[in-house]
Amino acid sequence: MSEVLIDDDAGVRTITLNRPDRLNALTGSIMAPLADACADAARDPSVGCVIVTGAGRGFCSGGDLKAGGADKAIVPASPEAGSRTEQGFARLRGFMETSRLLHEMPKPTIAMVNGPVAGAGIGIAGACDLRFAGRSATFLTAFDRIGAGGDFGSTWFWTKILGTGAARELFFLGEKLSAEEAFAKGIYTRLFDDDLLREETMEAARRLADGPRMGYRYMKLNLNNAEDWAFEAALDAEALNMGLATSATAMIWREKKKQEEQDG
């Protein structure tokens, strides 16, 4: 059984973590294909919007410590493989490309949070542009419970999304939040009844996939630039990207109109 499922629907690609018996906890066998799936979605021109979700009753409960997490394939230190610490870093950093790709790919990404999310899962959710949650969703940093510092971009994303004070509260105190509490804090973008979550998420994703893709490409680039760039540099980029986006969109619309006239 595949641990990462891919589904395409009218320009929307849904990537589903498929270990429902473990609340989609992460092991090497799921993290590697997840990163590959995100890379493929990023470069596939037929994909206009990406949804990430979990099978069953949860989104992602973080690393599967019982199964060894990312460390199962680490071998004894050697001149060829390096130390166990070096191997662990390289292996985990490669898996964490999932978060970079979701954040940087030039198309909107949505985390459809259908239940508990914790640990590395909050990094994956935070990497997405939007987070739609069902009322059964919860939110837990969980890193304090295993004496860990955070991974999958979790400390970076949530500092950017919520501000440093709110992020430190989440990580240091490690309190589990209900869906309503997480929504009130701005963690979840929208909150739906569980039976409406998939329908509402797909409706928004299809609208994004059908929208001005070049506009969204440069819009996302501007928003990402704003996270770190100085104001003047961001203005320069906005001015440049405005021209690139509108010219690309106009060209696409002209070609579409031309094709419609030929077909009609």
What does this structure look like?
This protein has two domains: about 5-210, 2-enoyl-CoA Hydratase, Chain A, domain 1 (Alpha-Beta Complex); about 215-264. Helices cover about 50% and strands about 15% of the residues. The longest helix has about 35 residues, at about 230-264. The N and C termini lie far apart (about 45 Å). It is globular, with a radius of gyration of 20 Å. The protein has ten helices and nine strands. The strands form two sheets. A six-stranded mixed β-sheet has the order 1-2-3-4-6-9, sandwiched between helices. Strands 5-7-8 form a three-stranded mixed β-sheet, covered by helices on one side. The chain has about 260 residues and is an alpha/beta fold. A hairpin with a 2-residue loop joins strand 1 and strand 2. The mean pLDDT is about 95. It has helices at about 30-45, 85-95, 95-105, 120-125, 155-160, 165-175, 180-185, 195-210, 215-225, 230-264; strands at about 5-10, 10-15, 50-55, 110-115, 115-120, 130-135, 140, 175-180, 190.
